[in-house]
Amino acid sequence: MSPRRKTTNLDMPTHVHWKNGAWRFKTPKHLIPFVPGRKTWLKLGTEKREALQEYAKLMGNLSNESGMSKLFNRYEADVIPTKAPRTQKDNRKELKQLRSVFGNMHPAELTTMHCQQYLDIRGKQSKTQANHEIALLSHIFRKAMQWGVVNSNPVKGVEKHRVKARDRNPEHWEIDEFLSVATPFITAWVDFKLMTGLRQGDILALKVDVLRTDGIWGRASKTGKRYFVEMDNELKAAIKALMACNRVQGLTVVCNRSGQPLTEDAFRNRWQDVMNKALAETKLSERFTEHDLRARYATDLDEMGGDVQESLQHSDRRTSDTYIRSKRPSKITVLSRKKSGE
Fold it and tell me: pLDDT tens digits for 106-143?
């Protein structure tokens, strides 16, 4: 029987839980014989970083753990916590995929061929995710070289998948058609999104206590950078409309029925319900995603002469350009065909 899925503290390893004032490891039955004292619950610590370090040591000392598994554990304990919150979440999902394939191997066994085969096979499901996962594996091996575990990086030489950049940029009339059948929540969300261009994860995580009279003082979950959105009456109304959709008001602007932060899966379901209805009942004929609204925001801001890179919180202008150039047709200058002297 598979372990019961965690519903809280999803950023921690599967068998690590908060219990009785501390982080504790709930030992799976098949590992109990290898755990000191054969205990079901082992205290790891009261702080997350401390608990993750103890967890890595524990897992590394279990007799059925391979070298790659120990390497994954050390990376998860020492490196991932130093990254931005959203990156930590993504890395742990990617690490789970890598464990399922390489977990029983030794670092010295992995070759470039193994890594390329992983990329090719995983790419049949998702080329983008395959690229992300192999990039993480490469960084793990770079750290392993620094730690003296290996002398080379087998991922070096692997050819990643070429992924075509998404170029969907919904026109304003398409958004209007979509909104004509949208729920009050989705309507308020779209208004707020097109005003601010904030990432979906940042809107879902937006706390009420960062709302000020002069604006929103937040921190991007993906990069960890602080940002400020100046408040005006229109933005204030959009925020009020979002919060009015909550049955119970919690700590975040957007909440579920219990007042807890709305999850990405729950939001996706709400969005898809409205999109399916719009495709069936309006003139909208092509689907667009919530993320595509960020491109709409970037394109409109660029046309107004605004600073797209700063507003999208990108460290590289080239990243910002992908939201504009690939979404908007090239403008061709018309030349006159009249002959000189005519």
Answer: 888 889 999 999 999 999 999 999 999 999 999 999 99
Domain ranges in the chain are 16-146, 172-322
What band does 1 get if pLDDT is binned at 50, 70 and 90? very low
pTM attached to this predicted model? 0.59
Query: Tokens in use for 154?
Result: 């087998």
CB hemisphere CA count around 252 (13 angstroms): 16
DSSP-derived 3-state class of residue 320: helix
Strand (E) or helix (H) holding 300: helix 292-303
Q: Which amino acid is at 96?
A: K
Say which DSSP state 19 is in: E
In angstroms, the Cα distances linking 56 to 79, 148, 150, 244 are 12, 17, 19, 44
Alpha-carbon distance values, 155 to 117, 118, 122, 171, 276 (Å) = 11, 11, 15, 41, 41
Encode 14-28: b = buried (16+ Cβ within 10 Å), e = exposed.
Answer: ebbbeeeeebbbebe
Residue 16 and residue 55 in contact, taking contact as beta carbons nearer than 8 Å: yes
Fold exhibited by the domain 172-322: hpI Integrase; Chain A (1.10.443)
